[in-house]
Amino acid sequence: MKIEIYNTAHELGEAAAKHTTQLLREAIETKGTANLILATGTSQFETLHQLINEDIDWRKVTMFHLDEYIGLPVTHPASFRKYLMERFISKVDLKEVYLINGEVNPQQECKRLSEIIIQHPIDVALVGIGENGHLAFNDPPADFETEEPYIVVELDNACRRQQMNEGWFNSIDDVPQRAISMSIKQITKSKNIICSVPNKRKATAIKNCLENTVSNLYPASILQTHNNCIVYLDKDAASLLSHQ
What we know:
The protein is of the alpha/beta class. The chain contains 7 helices and 10 strands. It has a single domain, classed as Rossmann fold (3-Layer(aba) Sandwich). The protein has helices at residues 9-31, 45-51, 80-87, 106-117, 157-165, 184-188, 203-211, and strands at residues 2-6, 34-38, 61-65, 67-69, 96-98, 124-127, 150-154, 178-182, 192-197, 229-234. Strands 1-10-9-6-2-3-5 form a 7-stranded parallel β-sheet, covered by helices on one side. The mean pLDDT is 96.
């Protein structure tokens, strides 16, 4: 794992997107196609905005995403499918798109997606880190052991409060209590991981996940063990790190 720190969220997003572009181009050049995982949330705004403006042959890219609420309609402002369709999918011409449907039987949806993703080794995963240290919706204590690519998870109160505070929901009672999430092991199987984390409110989580011993109490700490992971931070998110 490497850490890069930038002055602003915009600079962070630009750097993360340009590195992602390089990795996707290399995959396409090597094997003719590329497989990509996208994250959502406010931490990804700048990265995705820059990425859609890069010169990539998207017709050779297959896209998966990390997580989705169970029982939330795709029309809801907080739907991650809606987020990706509006901010990314509608703006590029992808080869294939595999979105998580949180409105069907969750166990069957996990099985469907798991069978697909094992046929698509991931070249690049774009991820973030939550205020509680979660990676995707794997809240602490996260399951570091399951081999299942997609799992049903319970969302803790810190996670749900973050979603409300970011403006996606009017109250914490409106935030679903369960979600479908890509598992920790599936994320770390990605050949390359690009982790983008701006904002002062993430500073404690960044310190816990990047400087503490790897632990499922700090789920994103698992990134320390990945040889091809770069964590892109702005100065605010990095403000509590011992070495900057």
